[in-house]
Amino acid sequence: MQGDKALLISLAVVKPFEENYNKHPQPQIELLKKSLARYGAYKPVVVWRNPEDSEYRCLAGHGVIEAAMQLGWSEIWANDRSDLSHTEARALVAADNEIARRAEPDMDDLSQLIAAVNAEDESLAALAAGGEDELRRLLELAGEEPRGEEDEDDTGRLAEADELKQK
User: Fold this and answer.
1) Which of 55, 101, 104, 152 has the fewest CB atoms below 10 angstroms from its CB?
2) Cα dihedral angle (112, 118, 120, 124), rounded to 10 degrees?
3) What's the average model confidence in pLDDT over 144-153?
4) What is the per-residue pLDDT across 1-28, written as a single tens digit (0 to 9) for each?
5) Measured between alpha carbons, how far is residue 81 from residues 15, 16, 36, 58, 92 in Å?
């Protein structure tokens, strides 16, 4: 890729791109922190050195950088796109956000994938689903219940059966 250079960069020197319009609420940052803790940074963020002040700006990966900082990380892998003009940097920010937003997940396929993960590891399924509420919704779509709820229902049914036996 033209101008693309991988580097391990100090988080202390990367500033947010001033014109980034995507906001990352703390619940999303918490999910990103869990993902980073589990998988590490499996794809690099994208940075650009602003020619006006020579400081690095984040073009893609603002939420990942915030999560990494909250985890106490000092550095992260980045693709350096300092070859871009300011206009190209702006366009990359918008393209990264808007093209990704155009994805159309097949919810049936996603629910089946999450159900398969849940059968092996419920906490990993919750992370993959984007949280406990989304996990429950996807498992319901797949025609399954979270394992914890099954246990509670079974316990309740056993208690009811014991009460009937005693009468």
Assistant:
1) 104
2) 120
3) 59
4) 556 799 999 999 999 999 999 999 999 9
5) 14, 15, 23, 10, 10
Please check whether residue 134 is in contact with residue 117, taking contact to mean a CB–CB distance below 8 angstroms.
no
Burial class for 69, CB neighbours closer than 10 Å (0-12, 13-18, 19+)? middle
98, two tokens: 């808007």
Four-CA torsion 81, 85, 91, 96, nearest 10 degrees: 0
Q: Which two tokens stand for residue 136?
A: 């429950």
What amino acid occupies position 27?
Answer: P
Q: Above pLDDT 90, what percent of the chain?
A: 83
Nearest one of 88, 91, 32, 37 to 65, comparing CA atoms: 32
Going along the chain from its start, the domains and CATH numbers come out as 5-101 (3.90.1530.10), 107-166 (no CATH)
**SS3 of 77, please?**
strand
Please name the amino acid found at residue 11. Answer: L
- The rounded distance, in Å, linking the Cα atoms of 101 and 163 is 54
Q: Cα–Cα distance between 88 and 28 in angstroms, integer?
A: 27
Residue with tokens 């980045």: 78
